[in-house]
Amino acid sequence: MTAIMDGPEATKVSDVIVCRDVHKWYGDFEALKGVDLTVEAGEVVVILGPSGSGKSTFIRCMNRLEEHQEGRIIIDGIELTHDVRNISEIRREVGMVFQQFNLFPHLTVLDNITLAPINVRKWSRDRAEELAMKWLTRVGIPEQADKYPGQLSGGQQQRVAIARALTMQPKILLFDEPTSALDPEMISEVLDVMRDLAKAGYTIVAVTHEMGFAREVAQRIIFMDGGQIVEINSPENFFNNPTHERTKLFLSQILNH
Amino acid sequence: MAQTTVNPPGSDANIPPPPDEQGIGARVLSYIFDIRFLGVLGQIAFILLLIVGAQRIFSNFGSNVDKLGRAQFICRDGRFAYRCAYDFMETQAGFDIDDTVLDYVNTDSFWWALTNGIVNTFRVGLLALVATTFLGTVMGVARLSENWLVSKLSLAYIEIIRNTPILVQLLLLYFSVILALPDIKDAIQPLNLPIYLSNRGLIMAWPQFMSSAAIWLAFLVLGIIQFQVMWVYLSRREEKTGRESNKFGWGLAGFLLIALIGWFISASVSDNEGLLIADNARIDEVDDFDTVMLSRAGINHLSELETLPEEEITAVTLDVCVLRESSSEANFVNRLARKGIPFKISRNGSPAKAMDNYVDGSCEMFAAPVSILAAERATLENPNDHIIVPIDEQPLVWSIPRFERFNIIGGATLTPEYFALFLGLTIFYAGGLAEVVRAGILSVSKGQTEAARALGLSEGQRLNLIVLPQALRVIIPPLISTYLSLMKDTSLGVAVAFQDVYLVSQTLMNQSGRALQIMIILMLVYLAISLFFSSVLNWYNDRVVIVER
């Protein structure tokens, strides 16, 4: 079933995400049925799959927004257990961008970004604001720093959310369908930022429906269905030459509509 | 088939004729059913209704005033005038209020009695308000806890409290919990603390300010200013250098240091307290009591007192006169108690009465502020046979409750009535507030919590920085009405005979027979309380809401 399966001995120091036989149940429903994945530092991995395939659940397990009940998840050498020290350590090193942006509506853009560096990393306000402005400039909206999230467009909000995640200086970035809640004309501005980050060498795991982005940026594509990884492949092979029947069906459905 | 439904272009078959070409009947009807006409008609009808209603009320009022008679409006010189409606308030109240903060005796005026009632209302209402806010928030958060037991306990509390009437809870609390506490001689004393719980209420140690406290309080203010300055200075330095410092710790240390220095300075400069005693008693300072006591009892050490038979102890016990409600008592008594010297206190209503007892020998000494003692000593037959011994004082002395015969003396007492009303209001309104808090927290979307967690914020930071500030907007409007209801429900004190403004007013009505005047005052009092609270909270609400956009 699984196309690529590294054994434990295959794990390298540069592997920043190691998942081994991860299981997750919601009551009686098994959402993840033994998922294995290893991601190297600097790698860009895109997870594709039909809705309900468990792809969001999987990346949300990587920073303990969801709890996995079986198997091991090791992020940057730290095992994700029930130990709160490990959990907070991992969350500090893993940035996440959500489908619904989840900016804090009662704080300005700048305060949204500096909140965690000041309260979690214990930086001085000056240092946090300096880096925050650097990232706001990089995502192209430094002039919005003093506005409230409610005053921004969806695409701008998502770029603030990306700046917020990056100002914490994470080692890994998780994207959970970052463009799904955006109007079509705003999708490209967010994808441009993500493309930029991928080129800059960030380790990225992204769940998305943007096939163009996946084809262009991903080093590996992971196809999930029914709580399992069906196929792991390079983008060219995945789109042009899929090995698995389920993958072919999925591609024909999304590419020929 | 299309012939009946679709008209050919240019045909007017389906368009009604313009209004001025219609028949007279149809035109009149269309005026009557005109929405603008109907609106005006409704307004007129409502105004007529109002006028009729107001007229009824005023004529009713007028006839009632006639029935009540002109006696209601008699001035003190016996003449009749409506402006004298409230002159009766200056007459003597003639009834007691058991539980007052301000000095009140039954010869004071109705106004003063009413003022004491208002103070009592605030005393119980404000404390219950603070406690309700605290308990309600805790219960609301607990209700959402992932801990099964905590959340279910909170649920049980909320459901029981919200679904039974507050009056029933109050009476239950008063009669079957508080009045069921032991008699005062068996008062419960938890952990040997100076706190006694009995069916006379809660008696606890209470700080009393001495006259030197003014100096000390000035130092405390200085300490608070120092805290602010320190905080601003350290924050500036922090922002400049990025180096963390314990702002709170340093500020607090500075505050405590200044408070301590102030304490010793104000204690050493004050010389207000004194003790009037016969010159031949061989006591020139407080420490002499030890030797006098030893020679009186014929022992070598004070600890031997315990071995003496009771009547011998009674014989050597110091008889001390003090003024009722004076802080000199606590100050002097604490000194004797610390040494283990047996004493008996007799409290007097006035310096003159204390001096009578002093002269006829029923007390050996009189402890009071020096100024009073000096004036009283001058009235004695041979002033030079009596001396005034200075007594040290600290700015703050604890009045510690102690058993004396069958009663507990000293400390501060929360009466059972106050205690029951306070607890009853708190428990009931915290139940309602818990649901308000829960709804507020639930109104913050799950995504906010996820974003906070993904950024690595701790659960406490998530609650304080993200969830509660956003929940507050939803919480405040119902919180205002909870507070208002609580303040108005202090009038339920009537059920347990707590003399708040309502019960005092009721007594005033019975005493004076002027129900109308007092009802008007009472309504104004509650109206003022409510308007005050709602304006403060609305102002706060506007502040937190505007921040968003």
How would you describe the overall organization of this protein?
The complex is a heterodimer of chains A (257) and B (549). Chain A has 257 residues and is of the alpha/beta class. Chain A contains 9 helices and 10 strands. Helix content of chain A is 37%, strand content 25%. Chain A has a 6-stranded mixed β-sheet, sandwiched between helices. In chain A, strands 2-1-4-5 form a 4-stranded antiparallel β-sheet, with helices on one face. In chain A, α6 links the parallel β7 and β8. In chain A, α4 crosses α5. The longest helix of chain A is centred in the C-terminal third of the chain and has 16 residues. In chain A, 47% of the residues are buried. In chain B, α11 links the parallel β5 and β6. Chain B has 4 domains: 42 residues; 221 residues, MetI-like fold; 60 residues; 121 residues, Periplasmic binding protein-like II (D-Maltodextrin-Binding Protein, domain 2, 3-Layer(aba) Sandwich), CATH 3.40.190.10. The model of chain B has no long low-confidence stretch (mean pLDDT 85). Chain B is built from 18 helices and 12 strands. In chain B, the strands form 4 sheets. Chain B has a 5-stranded mixed β-sheet. A 3-stranded antiparallel β-sheet of chain B has the order 1-2-12. In chain B, α4 packs across α14 and α5 packs across α14. Chain B has 549 residues and is an alpha+beta fold. Chains A and B meet through α2, β6, α3, α4 and α5 of A and α7, α15 and α16 of B.
